[in-house]
Amino acid sequence: MSAGWDADRYQRQFGFVSGMAGDLVELLGPRTGEVVLDLGCGTGELAASIAAAGARVWALDSDPAMVAAARGRLGDDRVLLADGHAFALPEPVDAVFSNAALHWMPRPAEVIGRVRAALRPGGRFVAELGGAGNIDAILEALGATMAEAGLPAPECPWYFPTPGQYATLLEAGGFRVARMEHFPRPTPLAGGPDGLADWLTMFGGQLTAAVPASELPGVLARAGELAAPRLRHDGRWVADYWRLRFVAVAGGEAARPAKLHRQMAGDRDR
Ligand code: BEZ
Q1: What does the pLDDT look like over 118-130, one tens digit per residue?
Q2: Is 157's pLDDT higher than 80?
Q3: Kindly report the CA angle at 70 between 67 and 72, in degrees rounded to 5?
Q4: Residue 57 three-state SS
Q5: Is 208 close to ligand 1, i.e. is its CB under 6 Å away?
Q6: Is the pLDDT of residue 170 over 80?
Q7: 100 lines ligand 1 (CB under 6 A)
Q8: Which domains, ranges and CATH numbers included, belong to the chain?
Q9: pLDDT band at 260 (very low <50, low <70, confident <90, very high)
Q10: How many angstroms separate the alpha carbon of residue 242 from the centre of ligand 1?
Q11: Which residues contact 259 (CB under 8 A, 6 or more apart)?
Q12: In whole angstroms, what is the distance from residue 220 CA to residue 197 CA?
């Protein structure tokens, strides 16, 4: 994650992000003595639960406030301040875990390359991220609001792939895809009537960057009016999250360049 986070507020108001991922840790199935990396660890809550299961955990985040919070949980020497597109670890790991972080990393092939390099052969990559369709209703309401106000269309800063897109990247990066799921996860937001505005304030800074500060409250209120028919249920805001969840296994060798793959396939067919 990298957005100049307020880690305390994130934990208080958006702790559900980790709270909803307990079964992702179960899917990882950390074992005693294993070495596991949590990629995009945020405040380190899930990394701590992986450590509590007996694994030796490395954690990594690109945001200094998140790293400080995670170090409070895991210790200074286990948490690295680094970019998911360009990191290296002091030792090979048995598994890489990631929750709600990969969609903040816009160059997935680079990330997958770093993950493959971090894993021992046969190691597993277990992750969940926003998938295609994620927060469409929020983005559409904000886009319509900006258009009404004569403001430039917001550009989505996140990467929400389809299962096919991500599986293709994993395979090209030297992984076998053992499991890939794409499913809706309607997600209640904290904050009562301000829940959607709070969410946009916490996460949507890049979407609203072109809005003059004096107009921002009006823009958030109007986006709420437009989003309410789809996202307000029984007085609660429920975000239209879609998740992509996968398990991939690192192949025995680092991925070969595509040209070499083609040559080898040609050799076989001859
Ligand atoms: C998500 O978890 O889907 C998400 C969180 C913040 C911004 C965008 C997406």
Answers
A1: 999 999 999 999 9
A2: yes
A3: 115
A4: strand
A5: no
A6: yes
A7: yes
A8: 7-135+158-189+241-268 (3.40.50.150)
A9: very low
A10: 9
A11: none
A12: 6
